[in-house]
Amino acid sequence: MRSRKSLVGSLVAATVLSAGMGVTAAAPAQAAGKARPVPSCVKTATFNQPSVYTVQVRNTCKGAMKVKVQMKYGTDHPCTTIAKGKIVHFNSKGIKVYKATVRC
Questions:
Q1: Secondary structure of 30-86 in the HEC alphabet?
Q2: Residue 57 burial class via C-beta count within 10 angstroms: exposed 0-12, middle 13-18, buried 19 and up
Q3: SS3 for 96?
Q4: Gyration radius of the chain over CA positions
Q5: How confident is the model at residue 34 (pLDDT cuts 50, 70, 90)?
Q6: CA distances (Å), 1 to each of 7, 13, 63, in order?
Q7: Which of 23, 45, 80, 94 has its CA 20 to 30 A from that of 86?
């Protein structure tokens, strides 16, 4: 019985310690400008056409959102404010492919 209590105590201590380390490790990454994902009320769709690659971002949130469309194999689109209920299209040419929509 004593070894079971000791095991449970060790597991609790390890969980608390690792949770504390995770919070500490996350803070510097955010401070360094790590991209934050957009909320689920921001909808993204992609359209691959022969001459242009289009990323459509729709804001269904309660207010305006500042978003940035990140692309693979090329430069990202600049930070853009999308008003509530509006849709914005980001067009790219060449080999760029959609990577993510993030907050900015």
A1: HHCCCCEECCCCEEEEEEECCCCEEEEEEECCCCCEEEEEEEECCCCCCCEEECCCC
A2: buried
A3: coil
A4: 21
A5: confident
A6: 10, 19, 57
A7: 94
Tokens linked to 68: 């940035």
Mean pLDDT, residues 30-34? 52
Q: What are phi and psi of 74, to 5 degrees?
A: 175, -175
CA distances from 71 to 39, 77, 98 (A): 19, 8, 5
Q: Considering only 6-15, 26-35, 40-49, 60-69, which range has the smallest mean pLDDT?
A: 6-15
